[in-house]
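Try this one yourself first.
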């Protein structure tokens, strides 16, 4: 399937690979592309057959440079920071399915936001993450200030957003922002391998884990801790735990049914509200 410059492919029936496909412009997102990206994520989130999402960019230079600022009004970027536009760059954290960002090059500004909002990140050794807002008179948003200190040591996060110092893939892995460095030709395949492992797990449990971990960053420890207890109780009486324990006793792999995660965990946060 293709959605203009946003491409959707399904791998092994369970993994959605979403590619930002505008390599001649470093995969910078026009308004139409950003809307298409949002729509693809929303649609994939409603498909019970899809267990995980891999997000990547086309070509070898950029994951995405973020907003295409060529079309922005000079001296007035306010429209880019409206709530509707911000959602497009934090959508990986809003859907119920886990998102793996396979960062194939530069992830700048909005591209950095997409990586921050993802649940897992792997990258090629030449990848670089950057928050250039302060150089342009912009206050970085979309998680670059609120969430980044949860994902990097605070002093390193401050260096990236206050000094505008790019974060190399090597440093990103060293500090745990990126979990693995992968050679370019194997990047998406490796992300799909990780997605396949997730796909064998209980979709309800995975969605619960994602919801709690995202809540920790967005709403704080106390809210997430209460949610952890509540969702743990919900899972403890569900069909997935019965299948998991039965499979354990029978010494076989569990087979969890393809159902929407929000049917299993009592309304997981989704981008579609």
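Now uncover the answer:
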């Amino acid at each position: 399937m293709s959605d203009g410059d946003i491409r959707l492919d399904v791998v092994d029936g369970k993994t959605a690979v979403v590619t930002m496909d505008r390599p001649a412009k470093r995969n910078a997102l026009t308004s139409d592309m950003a809307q298409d990206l949002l729509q693809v994520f929303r649609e994939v989130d409603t498909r019970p057959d899809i267990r995980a999402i891999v997000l990547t960019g086309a070509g070898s230079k950029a994951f995405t440079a973020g907003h295409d600022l060529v079309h922005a009004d000079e001296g007035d970027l306010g429209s880019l920071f409206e709530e509707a536009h911000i959602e497009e760059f934090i959508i990986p954290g809003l859907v119920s399915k886990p998102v793996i960002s396979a960062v194939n090059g530069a992830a700048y500004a909005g591209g950095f936001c997409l990586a921050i909002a993802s649940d897992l990140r792997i990258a090629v050794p030449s990848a670089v993450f950057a928050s250039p807002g302060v150089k342009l008179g912009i206050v970085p948003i979309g998680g670059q200030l609120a969430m980044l200190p949860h994902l990097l040591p605070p002093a390193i996060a401050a260096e990236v957003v206050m000094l505008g110092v790019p974060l190399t893939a090597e440093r990103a892995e060293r500090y745990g922002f990126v979990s693995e460095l992968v050679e370019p030709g194997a990047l998406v395949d490796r992300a799909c391998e990780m997605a396949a492992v997730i796909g064998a797990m209980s979709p309800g449990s995975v969605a619960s884990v994602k919801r709690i971990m995202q809540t920790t960053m967005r709403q704080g420890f106390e809210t997430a801790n209460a949610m952890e207890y509540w969702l743990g109780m919900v899972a403890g009486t569900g069909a997935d735990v019965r299948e998991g324990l039965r499979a354990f006793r029978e010494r076989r792999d569990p087979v969890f049914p393809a159902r929407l995660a929000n049917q299993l965990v009592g309304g997981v946060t989704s981008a579609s509200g």
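Discussion: The mean pLDDT is 87. The chain is about 40% helix and 15% strand.
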